[in-house]
Amino acid sequence: MAASTNERPMCPVCKHRMALARISPGPRGFDERTFECSTCERTEVVRFAVDPMQTDAVGWLAGELKPPN
What we know:
This protein is mainly β. The chain has strands at residues 19-25, 30-36, 43-49.
């Protein structure tokens, strides 16, 4: 399956592009993404490593909160 978080994988059965159906939290540091094929109805679950500095959780860094001097 795909290694990139931006790529929709190809279905291993019918070779059509799969669609992202859902994103679920996985084990610590990972997301589990479920892809579905609309042609043959196959589903695949792929685990992606999550970079904590690239998530929405870092929004507070752009706010007024500053580290102590």
